[in-house]
Specification:
The structure is a homotrimer of 322-residue chains. Chain A is α/β, with parallel strands linked by helices. The first copy, chain A, is 37% helix and 14% strand. Chain A folds into two domains: 27-147 and 303-316, Aspartate/ornithine carbamoyltransferase (Rossmann fold), CATH 3.40.50; 150-301, Rossmann fold, CATH 3.40.50. Chain A has twelve helices and nine strands. Chain A starts with 26 loop residues before the first helix and ends in a 6-residue tail after the last helix. The mean pLDDT of chain A is 92.
């Protein structure tokens, strides 16, 4: 299987073969995914929420790191495409018998798998796996360390497009732990690719990577300055382990300076929308009145996430005719 | 969605929308479930044990408390209705990330779920969830703390009706740990609703709630007195934790006074049937010769339990035309 | 249900009813399974890898002992036959509530199961279960203690037949921990039944059962002597717990004397094939250059394993017309 060595998720016709990262994903491929997802939003609102696009295909959810929430979204997406789904929590299994990740994966591939949805704590693990599987198997990155979580980034831009239509006039703010967030990284890549002219990152200096400006974003330490006149407020989940570490005094301390409250949101545009990848820490990164308020699109993000995963699976399998 | 505030499992037409409790479930709705289950007994005896009543529907088994046995019955029932089933053991997942139950459930609902089968250690949790989901989602209580386990109660009365036909002439004895048993509570509600004139509870004083007589039942401390001339002997599972506690000396001690042996059963009517919700502690609440004897209907209860769950799911989904 | 008391896996017409052991499985039944599997290899290479042979049937994977790898092969095989599959990890469930294995199984049987795939740490557990289920339920042994792992033995001989065609001219060597290996035992039975004239076992004296010669095999302590001119090199997995025990100095020590390297393999026939049941300990029982080399058929074994399990399930269910 010839894959572009600089971008091993595309085949020689420039079509999506794996989904590993939004970094380097061309705008037309990204738009193809968003357009396909649009049609799947319709399917999930039907009475019979099923299409036969992956009938007779075997999708393996290979989770080296536990994440019930993410696994569930891929499982339901695959089942609505009529695939057979196998869930594998590998931490509890073969690798404990001393087998390497590549042997485990080669073994599963030999079962005539069609698709691997991979989550792993190590950055780059899905790349390594994609490099070693045969041409009939498609790999989807469901989160690798701090690196990427591309379907999350795609559902975020899908949500933004749904409410704001045009990226070329948008001002987007991403708030919180930029340093450890694969969500932030995926969003920045996706928004830039789709032509968003102004992306701001907001957070305490300890949680902003020093080289972030190279991605073309603006850095704000002050929340209200950063939120001024933005169209999109993208909050990030603050990992508990960070709150206990030396990078941050406490969740309450973070909330005081960076929590999205009604009052903070008031400096954004009146029709600004608020995103959060979930699960939320209410009272840490976001106030309940905002999370449950009229500007919140947090639950629509979840719904759109199913459609995005259905779109990605159909496209890599070559079964999408848009 | 308008639901009767006094009985939030019924819609404005008095139809079953959620199944939360047998307490307050009208007799006609209860009979509708039993009649539907009758037809599903036929389906489960066919060669192809599948009907398309829930095709394209997504059923989420949300188990905040582990119970392989109960989860399996709902999973097999949903699959035989052709639903897509997602199993979620939530204790191991998001709530450990500090997310509230309602946020977890709102998130799953946003995945276009059609049905939540909920088990939770806290009484009332399924009510709380039912109150917060949208009108397209149906909640089925699969056991909440000591409170209710309505499908168990329904399969018990289904089994009794199957063997005894008419409730209005029956004498039923429930034996064991009435205090901690949601099974006992569900049975009493169901039997009373269906017109059973005489319900007896039998057990040591420490395991009988002091206010039980308000439910219209008779209390017996002596097993043989209580079993005299009954048509139905409903044994309860004795939780291990009770046996170790101060309420009860030991399993052997319990067996000596309240264990159902052939000799104890001899005082009931000759054609009395014996029920047990499982899993059994042989030699504690029941003797093996009774459990495996001709009067035992313990395994038929399990079979009927699948039919009952298929009936409840079809009815709440609005796909049952009886 | 009449089953041959000397061989309780066959019904009165000599047809496969359960698959419990390769010991005593007649050659014609074994060949029927291999021939059926041949046709399923075709199915698994199709675009839609599904046939409706078990549609509407309920297959329960009852794993009293954890094995993600084996469970996955049965799960994918059953799903490709269109069965409904229920996975049960029983160690974590009812038996911890004090219920016996037979009560657990009777309970599952009452849910109108069609097939039980059973793995248990105790030798003979699948026999015991087969003896107690009704005539409509078929039991497949997925590994019982040190005793048998019949589908593994079948996939091994399927693989050998695939590459070598004729058993009657073959020389096969099995290397490693013969004493604790159910794989070795299953292979010896299958090869003998199919007419293989020369089977050698190779290993340190501490890992060879003293009565092994009664099975008609030859014993070698020296690897190179044993491998001389063989057609098939069947390596066994060395269990970690053995390496730590008194039977074996260490993994490195084992590798020095019994590890299959290119150099050791050179004394076998030039077209000899190398098998391993997985998961491999590279650098203990096998060198990576052999495992990944041109003579290795380790990954084809996995593929054929799915076809074998589809064959066994179809045949015991009575739905195979070969």
């Amino acid at each position: 299987m010839w894959l572009d060595p600089r971008n091993p998720q595309l085949n020689k016709n420039g079509e999506l073969h794996h989904l590993l990262s939004l970094d380097g994903l061309p705008a037309d491929v990204m738009r193809q995914i968003l357009d396909a997802a649009e049609s799947f939003v319709g399917v999930t609102q039907r009475d019979v929420k099923k299409v036969p696009l992956l009938r007779g295909k075997s999708v393996f959810n290979i989770f080296f790191e536990n994440s019930t929430r993410t696994r569930t979204t891929f499982e339901i997406a695959a089942k609505r495409l009529s695939a057979d789904v196998i869930n594998l929590a590998i931490a509890q299994s073969s690798t404990s018998k001393g087998e390497s990740v590549l042997d485990t994966v080669a073994n599963l591939a030999a079962m005539q798998a069609d698709m691997f949805v991979v989550r792993h704590a190590a950055s780059g693990a899905p790349y390594l796996i994609a490099k070693h599987v045969g041409p009939d198997i498609h790999v989807i990155n469901a989160g690798d360390g701090r690196h990427q979580h591309p379907t999350q980034g795609l559902l975020d831009v899908f949500t933004i497009r749904h409410y704001k239509k045009d990226f070329t006039q948008l001002r987007v703010a991403i708030i919180g732990d930029i340093l450890h967030s694969r969500v932030a990284r995926s969003q920045i890549h996706a928004l830039t690719t789709l032509g968003c002219p102004e992306i701001r990152v907001i957070g305490p200096r300890t949680l902003i990577p020093s080289d972030i400006k190279s991605l073309g974003v603006q850095v704000y330490e002050d929340l209200r300055e950063g939120l001024k006149d933005v169209d999109v407020v993208s909050t990030l989940r603050l990992q508990n382990e960070r709150m206990k570490g030396s990078l941050l005094a406490s969740g309450q301390e973070f909330y005081k300076y960076y929590g999205i409250t009604d009052e903070a949101l008031a400096v954004a545009k009146p029709d600004a929308i608020v995103l959060h990848p979930g699960p939320m820490n209410r009272g840490v990164e976001i106030d309940s009145s905002v999370a449950d308020g009229t500007q919140s699109v947090i639950l629509p993000q979840v719904s759109f996430g199913i459609a995005i995963r259905m779109a990605v699976m159909s496209i890599v399998a070559g079964n999408w005719r848009g």
